[in-house]
Amino acid sequence: MKKGLFTLAILLLVGFNSTAQQVEFEEFDLDNGLHVILHQDNTAPVVITSVMYDVGGKDGDRARTGFAHFFEHLLFEGSENIGRGEFMKIIPANGGTFNANTSQDRTYYYEIFPSNKLELGLWLESERMLHPVIDQVGVDTQNEVVKEEKRQRYDAPYGGILEAIGSNLFKVHPYKDPNIGYMEHLDAATLEEFNAYFDKYYGPNNAVLVVAGDIDIEETKKLVRDYFSAVKKRPEVVRNFPKEEPITETIKAQAFDKNIQVPAIIATYRTPGHGTRDAYILDMISSYLSGGKSSVLYKKLVDQQKQALAVQAVNISQMDYSIFALFAIPLGEVELSTLLSEIDVEVAKMQNELISERDHQKLLNQFENQFVNANSSIAGIASSLATYYLLYGDVNLINKEIDIYRSIRREEIQAVAKKYLSPNQRVEIEYLPKKEDQ
After folding, report:
1. Contact at 8 Å (CB) between 392 and 280?
2. CATH assignment of 26-228, given 3.30.830.10, 3.40.50.11710, 2.60.40.10, 3.90.550.10?
């Protein structure tokens, strides 16, 4: 339901000051295990109600991939008290907006309302959790919606890059399968399987509710209990995903895209899950290499040597394993191997010498700015609170994560580049135009 290739970002509606500020919040649990986080800010008459479920593309039967993303759509169909299609009419009719998004690790729903509609937002989310209608009509309807989304996003030029990375970088972990799943799996799924999936993953004890904005804390606590206490606790979700063997020799692969004319080269590495210090440092390395037009790779390959149409280094943050990927599209007759060699030169420089103090300070400034912007609205704060609780296990990272970035030294950047980004630790993918006879 949310567009974007590498990132999941919420467009923010309510702005605050552009300087970092302490975010106050209060947490409590209902008897059914639902974790609740409240953040009060009465500077604007806006409130967000949001629920993040601990379920994503990696969960479920590997012969039934894509269920988490499918439910992102399906749970807007209606409930025992909300008619089919009414969910998406009620919200705008009451001055609100809404959306949802799914990653490999979690699913997130939210509504933003005028603050006098707080109770409505809580009722809608409780209906989704308590008794949604999951029937064949809804399944058939959303099946077509998901197929159209796949056509628009994954079948667009270079839209299969993430699928190519996942299927080649992972062999046994469910990250090998695309978040949207395989359409034949959804086509073959029965209504009983969809209901069983909901019963397993959408219990209150597998979720966090965040209410933020123009609220009264005590009144909101009462409303939360009124609307969510009736939801029954479910059995705890137990996960035991297989572990990947380390990559010790370069793996070469090819992937084909019928929607492109210009090939691309991808070098991708399996790196530590988010929350580890090394993952934070890899974030910095990706920004150093390609964070904007003044970055090392852009200046070299696009501006100066005119060898690339585009170049990017990205650290895709995930819970079990993250993905570090280098990507480039050649200009003219430049060979893919030439582009990769030129990129490797810059990575090797990071491994063999410290980045300059000036570049280090620039990185610190960039991450400070990103951190402030991420929490510059009620919507951003709500998303951060849910994410830090569910995926990182520390809600107060909303206030202290920037200190982790501030503490990263140049020597650590060099050491982490050496540790994870050598050619023998990666998969090299030639991403090629697909010919008609292939």
Report:
1. no
2. 3.30.830.10
